[in-house]
TrEMBL record:
CDD domains: MDR2 (cd08268). Pfam families: ADH_N, ADH_zinc_N. Residues 7-322 form the Enoyl reductase (ER) domain. SMART domains: PKS_ER. PANTHER family: QUINONE OXIDOREDUCTASE-LIKE PROTEIN 2, SHORT-CHAIN DEHYDROGENASE/REDUCTASE. It comes from Actinomycetospora chlora. This is Zinc-dependent alcohol dehydrogenase family protein.
Length: 328
């Protein structure tokens, strides 16, 4: 899959190319399923943190089998089941393909008991949730954590991570129509921001203190309200830019808080952090605490435009997956 101009889903094109050959430190993967992410929509539209070098490919996350090894790769074997996690630039690698070449460091083993769709849906959301809340955020048992855009795959994973740590997740969504799904996913409280006052509701829930942690995927001017909902000395972590608007520091209230930006690359480009994250997420997968939330599955690369249109609709609860290979 390639795109030669920036724009909506309609710019995506399927092209025939020779099978790619892995270079030193790289692995070729026969792709079975692809997990879609908002970052890919933003990359295509030109609003991502990195500008696309056209013509460009797409894709951070997939499951499949190792097809070939590049020079110097000894950790993996041909035929091994793997998941690919975001540990590269989409200007250099992309997994929207029948066969993709990625850095060997971007692979994690896929257990036999985990299907292709789940293997393409689980790692990115839980790595973001663990990395932003626990590894760098210091989330502790008893803390209240406010999760925005909570029906996204990352939002749902953040709720699960908070519960595993013993924290209290408060989920936000625009409409109360999604409240029951969020409670079923483990949210202790749900705030419908289009129907009630966010700050007043959070202060009510927390006994006037505010949340020790805010995990925000939206950014933009809404951080002013999020700051007012943050406890004194709390942490407001911005991990997404869904609003597409500038994000000011809310200095007009001189808040006593830490405001920080977080990207998944802080985890996936650091070997020791990724090792700890893999252990944390893997433990949750094994004991059933963590499970991917898949909203909808599309079949075939030729469904990529429809899948991206659905991705941008904002109606999903959880992950969107595109099945590709015959093995899926």
């Amino acid at each position: 899959m390639r795109f030669s101009e920036l724009g909506g889903p309609e710019v995506l094109r399927i092209v025939d190319e020779p099978p790619p050959v892995p270079g030193p430190g790289e692995v070729a993967v026969d792709v079975a399923a692809i997990g879609l992410n908002r970052a890919e929509s933003m990359f295509r539209r030109g609003t991502y943190i990195e500008a696309a070098r056209l013509p460009a490919g797409l894709g951070y996350e997939c499951s499949g089998t190792v097809a070939a090894l590049g020079e110097g790769v000894t950790r993996w074997s041909v035929g091994e089941r793997v998941s690919v996690v975001p540990a590269f630039s989409m200007n250099d690698h992309g997994v929207y393909a029948e066969r993709a070449v990625v850095p060997a460091r971007a692979l994690v083993p896929l257990p036999d008991a985990t299907g292709w769709v789940d293997g393409a849906a689980v790692w990115m959301p839980f790595l973001v949730g663990y990395g932003g809340l626990v590894e760098t955020g210091g989330l502790r048992a008893g803390d209240h954590v406010l999760v925005t855009a909570a029906t996204s795959s990352v939002g749902l994973a953040a709720i699960a991570v908070a519960n595993r740590v013993g924290a209290v997740p408060i989920a936000t969504t625009r409409s109360s129509s999604k409240a029951e799904a969020l409670r079923a996913a483990g949210a202790a409280h749900v705030v419908a921001t289009g129907e009630e006052d966010l700050v007043a509701r959070v202060l009510e829930i927390t006994g006037g203190r505010g949340c020790e942690h805010v995990f925000d995927a939206v950014a933009g001017p809404g951080v002013a309200d999020l700051a007012r909902a943050t406890a004194a000395g709390g942490v407001l972590t911005v991990h997404g830019l869904l609003s597409g608007e500038p994000t000011p520091f809310p200095a007009e209230t001189l808040p006593d808080l830490w405001m920080r930006a977080y990207t998944l690359f802080a985890m996936t480009h650091d070997e020791q952090r990724l090792r700890r994250a893999g252990a944390f997420v893997g433990a949750g997968l094994r004991d059933g605490t963590f499970a991917p939330q898949v909203d909808r599955v599309f079949d075939g690369l030729d469904a990529v435009v429809e899948a991206h249109e659905y991705l941008e609709s904002g109606t999903q609860v959880g992950k969107i997956v595109l099945r590709v290979g015959a093995a899926a």
